[in-house]
Automatic annotation (TrEMBL), chain A:
Belongs to the eIF-3 subunit L family. It comes from the Eukaryota. GO terms for biological process: formation of cytoplasmic translation initiation complex. This is Eukaryotic translation initiation factor 3 subunit L. It comes from Musa troglodytarum (fe'i banana).
TrEMBL record, chain B:
This is Eukaryotic translation initiation factor 3 subunit K. PANTHER family: EUKARYOTIC TRANSLATION INITIATION FACTOR 3 SUBUNIT 11 (PTHR13022), EUKARYOTIC TRANSLATION INITIATION FACTOR 3 SUBUNIT K (PTHR13022:SF0). It is found in: Cytoplasm. Component of the eukaryotic translation initiation factor 3 (eIF-3) complex, which is involved in protein synthesis of a specialized repertoire of mRNAs and, together with other initiation factors, stimulates binding of mRNA and methionyl-tRNAi to the 40S ribosome. The eIF-3 complex specifically targets and initiates translation of a subset of mRNAs involved in cell proliferation. Belongs to the eIF-3 subunit K family. It comes from Musa troglodytarum (fe'i banana). Residues 42-200 form the PCI domain. InterPro entries: ARM-type_fold, CSN8_PSD8_EIF3K, eIF3k, PCI_dom, Transl_init_fac_sub12_N_euk, WH-like_DNA-bd_sf, WH_DNA-bd_sf.
């Protein structure tokens, strides 16, 4: 972006080379990127391809439940049939882009946010419910053909398309190209604007979402037309997993965000206090914030691949026990905790997962009313429900006293009381419930490898999910006998191995194995190799006698008093400020 | 030779943390797996990185390498490294005989069925003897689980868990009495009792009540008020 007042000369703007990213992703990406910027005539070809493509069954509806879908959606690009003219720019759009462009040049973050969050949604609702926004070529003249603004506009254009319509194969590839160009520009440090955090988060979030969506799309080969298969062959570098991961990694590294966070801990830098903005100096927050959000993006991608350990490592620089920039935008807050909790669940660190789910569910309970009008509201609700399901799973595998706050607990019981009772029984019905809840709440796992585009063409988009589900249920099965032990242990303070074996109707050696399994499963190993006890009921064996130890719920007096002191101090301050007439 | 080896592993670890999403490092990582096996070291990060790259390009997967990674992961128990690795290996690959055997072995260890484990391990010696230190690692895991569970463990239970009997077991116990804080006791009428070292898991009174501690930074927030 140029300085305000100076007209940006498009002919002198050199498209930055991708050499930095080339070292990670290979030259094929660059080639694809260069060749994919569509010309006006190509959009006409797009529409005929889109019409042919719209016939196949594409349950993107199940993937993108983020936005309420108008009834005609799901029939492919139905909008394009209804006389959509990509070159027609209604006056309201003209005004929109002109004002947005000006606000960006003037670095008026507040106004940008109003337009991005408010006007864009309103215009989409009013005029673009079932068709895309005008093409970028059509609006470019109104914004001095500014290269970067056009990239931003196209990003929003594609996001709108994904939300309201079904993107074609070609459009998916074009969107990838747009992200490549946009991120390359940012990585080369040539952007000079400040954008609202909501927008920057949405960019990263959408990037990962479109990647996930593309993996699902290209794993369903059975009903693809020859056209589509040809597209997959030709643009085989689009949305390749190396590219996606390396862009996110490059953003994290180039922004030096981990250093920023380290220095902040030592008081040498302001970051969280200003939400990442630079109010005084006006330097661009774009690279920094994209780097920050990319850490969450990496956590998400690794969860989609089934690599939970590395995902958590990517998130490690962000301290989620503290307030931080990650919880400024509610979407990023929820996404962070959801994936963090899920990763911990798969790593068998149940107590950690329960703790974090509890905090966020309480937060959503308190504050969701303020987001009712926001376009993210449905997604917030969906994730809320999914996290209750995950919480139910965690508490069934690892019962706890007093880790779940009262209101959250009553919501949980409302939704899942019956299912949780079933899960504790560990019979066939129990596995069905674990299966159901896991399937409902898990991320949409992906197969990252390139498709084999030869006969026989199959749909293998469910393979990744099936593997994770199978391994999860395997773990559940291994804990099958533990709940029986737990209920017996709760009844006694001491009991001999012989007697307990008789009650449980197993022989003594088997009982010993069960007791050892209980100990092993209830003591997770954290990232540093420390042993973390998870059990609410514990025991030890001395020769032949089992001694039961019930852990008393620890009342956190210290924390409680601190909170109350601060609260009352605040109240006293407020009362002091009231002047009585 | 030792110093050279150290240099190689330093570079591989760096590769994994700086440039992990890179198909060109596959052979480095494979060599590193072989090195971990021969020098009895272990790196979860590097092995996960390799499994990920195999996931991205299934054609390059080397079954023997994956088998070695899984055996190393088994040796890392009680950490859940084995399941972490399984999450990254496609289902069809897991159907191969060697993997099925390893999964069964892991199952026995996870459910503390040591007798069945050692029986099965004996049958699968050909797969397992590739990795030196396997037996010792599993014995260490068995002792870990026993230490969580027992203050005093009967000798037969210990014997079954670590698959040592008779004179060798006597020697083993002697060694740990001398070095690891074990003790011996006579139980009424029956066999020996091995008294395991006290820790917070088999002696609950040792558990530190850290939950009620308050981090210092939180307390500093009230200093302005208190003054």
């Amino acid at each position: 972006m140029s300085h305000p007042g100076r007209v940006h000369n498009p002919s002198r703007y050199v498209v930055p080379s991708l050499d930095e990213v080339l070292s990670f992703t290979g030259s094929a990406v660059a080639e694809a990127a260069q060749s994919l910027i569509p010309s006006a005539s190509e959009t006409l070809i797009d529409r005929s391809v889109a019409r042919m493509a719209s016939s196949y069954d594409y349950d993107d509806a199940s993937l993108d439940s983020r936005y309420p879908r108008p009834p005609s959606a799901g029939q492919g690009s139905a909008g394009t049939d209804q006389g959509y003219d990509p070159n027609f720019v209604p006056d309201s759009v003209k005004t929109f882009v002109v004002h947005l462009y000006r606000h960006i040049r003037e670095k008026n973050v507040y106004e940008i946010h109003q337009m991005y969050d408010g006007s864009f949604q309103r215009l989409s609702d009013r005029m673009f419910r079932e068709c895309p926004w005008p093409s970028v070529e059509a609006i470019a003249p109104y914004v001095d053909n500014d290269h970067v603004f056009c990239l931003l506009y196209r990003e929003m254009w594609f996001r709108h398309l994904y939300a309201r319509l079904s993107p074609t194969g070609r459009q998916r590839v074009e969107s990838w190209d747009n992200y490549c160009s946009l991120f390359s520009v940012v990585l080369h440090g040539v952007v000079n604007m400040q954008l609202p955090n909501q927008w920057l988060w949405d960019m990263v979030d959408e990037f990962v979402y479109q990647f996930q969506s593309y993996c699902q799309y290209r794993a369903k080969l059975k009903n693809k037309t020859e056209e589509e298969l040809q597209l997959l062959r030709q643009y085989d570098q689009a949305w390749n997993v190396y590219g996606v991961l390396n862009y996110l990694q490059a953003l994290v590294e180039k922004s030096a965000i981990t250093d920023v966070l380290e220095r902040e801990k030592e008081g040498l830098e302001q970051f969280t206090a200003t939400d990442g903005y630079d109010y005084e100096g006006g330097t661009s927050n774009v690279l920094k914030m994209l780097g920050y959000y990319s850490m969450i993006g990496l956590l998400r991608v690794h969860c989609l691949l089934g690599d939970y350990h590395t995902g958590l490592k990517c998130l490690a620089p962000i301290d989620i026990s503290q307030q931080g920039v990650y919880n400024v935008v509610i979407g990023s807050h929820i996404s962070t905790i959801y994936h963090y909790g899920f990763a911990n669940l798969m790593l068998r660190r149940y107590v950690e997962a329960i703790r974090e789910f509890n905090k966020i569910l309480l937060y959503i309970l308190k504050y969701k009313q303020y987001h009712q009008k926001s376009p993210q509201y449905d997604q917030i609700l969906k994730k809320n429900e999914q996290m209750y399901a995950l919480l139910a799973i965690c508490l069934s595998l690892c019962p706890q006293n007093n880790l779940v706050e009262e209101n959250v607990n009553s919501q949980l019981r409302d939704k899942y009381n019956e299912k949780m009772t079933k899960m504790l029984r560990y019979d066939d019905e129990a596995y069905a419930v674990y299966d159901e809840l896991f399937t409902y709440a898990c991320p949409k796992f992906i197969t990252p490898s390139a498709p084999v585009l030869e006969e026989p063409l199959t749909n293998y988009n469910q393979d990744a999910y099936r593997l994770q589900l199978k391994l999860f249920l395997y773990e559940v099965k291994q804990q099958q006998l533990l709940s029986g032990v737990r209920s017996f242990l709760k009844l006694y303070s001491t009991i001999s191995i012989g007697k307990l074996a008789a009650y449980m109707e197993v022989d003594e050696p088997t009982l010993r194995t069960i007791l050892m399994t209980y100990k092993h499963k209830m003591h997770a190993i954290d990232g540093d190799g420390k042993i973390i006890p998870n059990a609410d009921v514990d025991f030890y064996i001395s020769e032949d006698i089992v001694h039961v130890v019930e852990s008393k719920p620890t009342k956190r007096y210290g924390d409680y008093f601190l909170r109350q002191i601060l609260k009352f101090e605040e109240m006293i301050g407020e009362l002091d400020r009231i002047k009585l007439d | 030779m030792g110093r050279e080896q150290q240099q190689v592993s330093y570079t591989v670890e760096q590769l994994v943390s700086v440039n992990p999403y890179n198909p060109d490092i596959v052979s480095d990582l494979e060599n590193y797996v072989n090195e971990q096996v021969s020098s009895q070291t272990y790196s979860l990060e590097a092995n996960l990185c390799l499994l990920r790259l195999y996931q991205f390009e299934p054609g390059r997967m080397s079954i023997p390498i994956v088998v070695q990674i899984l055996i190393k992961a088994l040796m890392a128990m009680p950490a859940s490294d084995f399941s972490l690795c399984l999450f990254l290996i496609p289902e069809q690959v897991q159907m191969e005989e060697q993997f099925k055997t390893l999964i069964v072995l892991s199952h026995y260890l996870e459910t503390a069925r040591f007798r069945q484990f050692w029986d099965e391990a004996a049958k699968s010696r050909s797969i397992l003897e590739v990795v030196p230190g396997f037996e010792q690692a599993i014995q260490a895991y068995a002792i870990h689980v026993l230490s969580l569970t027992y203050q005093k463990v009967p000798r037969p239970v210990l014997a079954e868990a670590i698959n040592i009997e008779g004179l060798s077991l006597d020697k083993f116990i002697e060694h740990h009495v001398a070095n690891s804080g074990w003790a011996l006791e006579k139980s009424h009428g029956r066999s020996q009792l091995i008294v395991l070292p006290r820790n917070e898991f088999n002696h609950p009174e040792l558990k530190k009540h850290t939950a009620d501690g308050v981090p210092f930074e939180h307390v500093t927030r009230v200093f302005p008020i208190l003054s």
